[in-house]
Amino acid sequence: MKFIELNLKGVYVITPDIFSDSRGKFHRSFCKNEFKENEIDNSFEQGNVSENPQKGTLRGFHYQIDPYQESKTISCITGSIFDVVIDLRKDSSTFLKSVSVQLSYKKKQSIFVPKGCANAWLTLESNTFIHYYMGSSYKPGFDRGIKFNDKFFDIEWPFDPKLVSEKDLEYPDFDPSNVV
Description:
Elements: E1 2-5, E2 12-15, E3 19-21, E4 24-26, H1 32-37, E5 46-52, E6 57-64, E7 72-78, E8 80-87, E9 98-104, E10 110-113, E11 117-123, E12 128-134, E13 143-145, E14 163-164, H2 166-169
Parallel strand pairs: 6-14
Antiparallel strand pairs: 1-2, 2-10, 3-4, 5-12, 6-11, 6-13, 7-10, 7-12, 8-9, 8-11
């Protein structure tokens, strides 16, 4: 596995080694030792699958606050996404900055999102399924979010989303003084 740190501290694109033979292809989506060698938190508590039948489905920006902050390792099982990470860690050199990456089943890459960052994705194809490992279980009352089109961050999405949940549309305008 190859770990490439992006422009946000602690955010990595992970490219697996792919092995092929007459039966097909094989690759690892996670390796505790390789995550540890790259100093990436690999203590996962939960695995989730998000099924997105429609191109243009947007999920996020989501994160959890202390003591249940969560890291995530996100991969496409089918289809592709435009994934965006926002750094909400006050002590980070990249605080309030964002980075985006396109993930796809074809590329087989993953993204590691560290604790203290918000994450969102937009499906670029119909029938996009996402698998992600979570460093903490979901805890009602500790979840937070940022509107995908919040003017404070002015994220450039590849196109306007077609499907966004009511909850994701109702987050208040972002106020950097409220970051916990």
